[in-house]
């Protein structure tokens, strides 16, 4: 799977990039305000999440609207409802002109024809910035978040790497001068010294709320580092493998060092637990750095530190997550072009620095090469390092993921609550998951070759 993804990446970037035109073309000949002139007064619509990256782009929106005359209407929706809301809108030919595409939705959105390949727009020089430069994105992000079937559909926008955020003051008080390098170190050496239930202080919190948070941020997070995986190469369940079971059992054991009720923690609760000094460490997305450094929401101050996610027996395999912005096929031709102008602007190198400074995480590599950015934002170096060798298949990106995710979330929550063992839970997930994949045609040799 990974080899196919990486093999096609170069080809699709070259194909899409070639359509943009001569990269040496003087940008003075193209300007956003001039390109947007025919679309002045056009309204475009999108769903945003209540997360730092979206608050950052909202902060910068007046600049785009003033320059282009295009009105960007957005609705802030909880992540757990965002896919369903978009699917209903696209299925009923609603008013969304853009799609916010999680990396695990790209297959579903593309194969249903809800989003448009960017080649439709890059072939039009009047609406495509000659400085678009797809090679300026981290290849991993462009591949995992925006590409499907050899075509680019969306541009990386809200980009995540799993990182270890920790309270270095709490660690120092417990006798540690550096964070745990491995999950086993965290469990065996660090966690016992950092947990004091009487003071309501705990070593670690793993966001595990039922839904995509449980399936992606909790369940899947303990598979890869331990050498396990959801599926094997034949698209059958791999959850009963020794490696997968080791990871899932490790999660159960680690719970004794987590706050009571952690199974109901979403990202907000996990981040807040660290921010308020209730836990010493969390593994969270890079996008929450802004929340943890904001004195209005965090007590950490200089005690905040960031490191790569701990390594497991299979090595350091951090979580990968994020979204792309894509043009919706249901939009009118005028709205599609206006939406494409917005997507280019929101993901451009021109605003990458301002976006990062406002709390976002850009998918552009050049901004993280700036010395002052690396010095100011502690998350940059571990995040960039993880994007050099991350795994796009951390979560399956095929259309069947949405249905499988619900099963993993349901049974994964029961595992953590002790209502089902890791073995019985794995068998339940495997049987139900394979039933879905069989109905979807993954065992007839056709779909498997496409992933």
Automatic annotation (TrEMBL):
**What are the protein's UniProt keywords?**
Periplasm, Signal
Q: What is its main location?
A: periplasm
Subcellular location per UniProt equals: Periplasm
GO CC annotation: periplasmic space
Any single Pfam family the record assigns to this protein: SBP_bac_1
Record flagged with keyword Signal = yes
**Signal peptide limits:** 1-18
Q: Which domain of life is it from?
A: Bacteria
Family assignment?
Belongs to the bacterial solute-binding protein 1 family.
Please report the name of this protein according to its UniProt entry. Sugar ABC transporter substrate-binding protein
- Give the species this sequence originates from: Bradyrhizobium australiense
